Amino acid sequence: ASRCNHLVFTLSGIPGLEYLNFWIGYPVIAMYIVSVLGNCSIMYTVKMEQDLHEPMYIFLFMLSAVDVLIATTTMPKMLGIFWFNSREITFNMCLVQMFFIHFLSALESGILVTMAIDRYVAICHPLRYTSILTSKTITKAVLGIAVRGAAVMMPLPLIIKRLPFPISNLLTHSFCVHQEAMKLACADYTVNIVYGLFAILLVMGIDSLFISLSYVLIIKTVVGLAEEASVKAFSTCAAHICAVLVYYIPLIGLSVVHRFGMNSNHNLHIVFADVYLLVPPVINPIIYSIKTKQIRNRLIRLFRQKVKGTKLFGDF
Question: Between 3.40.630.30, 1.20.1070.10, 2.30.30.40, 1.10.530.10, what CATH number should domain 7-310 receive?
Fold first, then answer.
């Protein structure tokens, strides 16, 4: 066995569909472009529009920033695999990608929690909204999420690095994730299994409980309101509920397949992993552009201004 820091891993595209690699690259680059343009448009809109400098939109700005980073961490390398057959990745670069994938996923989960709490305060304690969610509180929440994500996810590449590996290492994903890399080791990786489970329960497990609790309290409050008021209250949560479902359903599916689906279709866990990492950065800006009236109106107005400016420039 060779020590980890001398290794090169080989990344796969989608096993069994190698003959379609060139064509698979087109939806990947399309998803990347939509993700970057969509999320950057939301960030630009929130930054430029003074009316949107509220907690809800500040959290949305951060969610969009994380989505851009997740897409950039995964998709360019995938394009290299599909279009240029660039499959090799050094072990240390694999560890770096692994950390950022898990760290950014933890950040996204944490931001979804803060957005759920934001909706809870806005609906259940509207008169205290501005006094509870102050800029100081938001800053502390964001720092807490970042520190927790870094502290919990940093050990993952470190406990992989301590393991001996064979010279030939083929990863079935198009990116490096802890739960697959550990299975290639030539030694007992029980510590990795236990810590991986601990990390996902500490971050995603607790976060999902807080999100669920927030919506239980929201529903309890909304039920007592008049029909029109309850519909309006729920409409402010629609985009966030969609974002939560887009994030957590593939995560749960991926976790179940990795732990209990050993005899299932080998490509199933690859599909879940791709959906979990690639779909939220693409879908979230679309969801928020459609479901959030303020964002939608600002984006339409900005687009019209750009078109008008282009026509005026063309007249010269």
Answer: 1.20.1070.10
CA–chain centroid gap for 215, Å, is: 21
Which tokens in the block code for residue 164? 């001996």
Q: How many beta carbons lie within 10 A of that of residue 116, not counting itself?
A: 25
CB 13 within 8 A of CB 174: yes
Note every long-range contact of 203-207, with CB atoms under 8 Å and residues 24 or more positions apart, other chains counting. 203/106, 203/109, 203/110, 203/148, 203/149, 203/152, 203/153, 204/105, 204/106, 204/109, 204/248, 204/251, 207/109, 207/110, 207/112, 207/113
Taking the CB of residue 172, how many other CB atoms lie within 10 A of it? Answer: 16
pLDDT tens, position by position, for the chain (316 residues)?
Answer: 444 445 788 888 777 777 888 898 999 999 999 999 999 999 999 998 888 889 999 999 999 999 999 999 999 999 999 999 888 999 899 999 999 999 999 999 999 999 999 999 999 999 999 999 999 999 999 999 999 999 999 999 999 998 888 876 888 888 998 988 898 888 889 999 999 999 999 999 999 999 999 999 999 988 877 777 788 888 888 899 999 999 998 888 777 776 665 555 667 778 888 888 899 999 999 999 888 877 888 878 877 776 666 555 555 4
Residue ranges of domains in the chain: 7-310
List Cβ neighbours of 275 (8 Å cut-off, separation of 6 or more): 250, 253
Question: SS3 for 9?
Answer: strand
DSSP bridge pairs for 90: 8
